[in-house]
Amino acid sequence: MSFPATRLRRLRRTDALRALVRETSLSLDDVVMPLFACPGEGIVRPVAGLSGIAQRSVDELAREAGELARLGVRAVLLFGIPE
Fold first, then answer.
1. What is the rounded distance in angstroms from the CA atom of residue 65 to the CA atom of residue 77?
2. Which of 2, 63, 69, 75 has its CA 20 to 30 A from that of 27?
3. In Å, what is the CA distance from 76 to each residue of 10, 12, 45, 81?
4. How confident is the model at residue 22 (pLDDT cuts 50, 70, 90)?
5. What is the DSSP string of 6-75?
6. 29 compared with 2, residue with greater pLDDT
7. Strands 44-46 and 54-56, how do they pair?
8. pLDDT > 60? residue 62
9. What mean pLDDT is reported for the chain?
10. Phi and psi of 32, rounded to 5°?
């Protein structure tokens, strides 16, 4: 006898049930990159507690957004502190 002796199919009976028990998969379409704006020009200030994240001036944000687009990240969430 080969394993498994019983094949449980009750969780695969309908499309809706299959969608609920499907393995999770992530792609770049699921990624949103947070970008933090600050006033000034040519500024990149690391954000304490968030490694790899920095506050950036508008010119630096444009450069960062271009790099993210080149890498395939399609969505950003912009946070800013007004002057």
1. 11
2. 63
3. 40, 36, 18, 16
4. confident
5. S---GGGSSHHHHHHHSPP---GGG-EEEEEE-SSSS-EEEPTTSTT-EEE-HHHHHHHHHHHHHHT--E
6. 29
7. antiparallel
8. yes
9. 87
10. -125, 120
Mean local confidence (pLDDT), 55-79: 94
Closest residue by Cα to residue 34 from 77, 64, 69: 77
Token digits of residue 59:
């010119």
* Amino acid found at 33: M
The letter for the amino acid at 57 is S
Sequence-distant (6+) residues with CB within 8 A of 80 are 36, 37, 38
Residues present in the chain in total? 83
**The one-letter amino acid at 3:** F
